[in-house]
Amino acid sequence: VTSKGEFHSFENVTSLPRPTQNPRPPFWVATSSSTESFIYAAENGYGVMTIPRPPEQVKAWIDVYRETWKKAGHPGRGRVMFATHMYCAPSREQAIEEARPHLEGYFHCLHEASSDWLHVTSKDYPNHPSMIATDRRDVDSMLKGDALWIGTPDDICEKIVRYQRSVGGIESASLQVNFHTLPFDKAQASVRLFAEKVIPRLRG
Question: In DSSP terms, which residues pair with 184 in a beta bridge?
Fold first, then answer.
């Protein structure tokens, strides 16, 4: 790849080792605040990765993405990945009690790190400053909904099924399992329980 830009330039750069997929690995576009991002991804045949937002908003975006994908003549219906936090424990109380401080810490750090961008504008991502300004996550509200996969194996199975139905279907999930300062042993126990009790029930 060769590129000459305003701030960075490089010539004949390659990647080693080469990706094993042929043709190239799939591209995923982060889509979290604008319909235009979903349209761009669909027109170019890319997958989208979105994050917890109100289900009705996510459904509207995914509907536009699928429709644009079809109009662009791509096979299938595109690929939607949902990125969220997952914490699985034997009881709901334990899951929430152990995950809550790390969720709050995660969202606090994210907002603090992004707040410097509030006065930065970009023609390519015009919604970003306003998204950061209003994106102070209410963890209690999120825990009550289906966008965070936190609870018992039964809770999480039900959340995933409901979320799938409410947004019109996703193909895959990217799970944050050791968010903020969550200890490794707790994250490991959560993932093991998820693998043993949730995945087999939802496979296929």
Answer: none
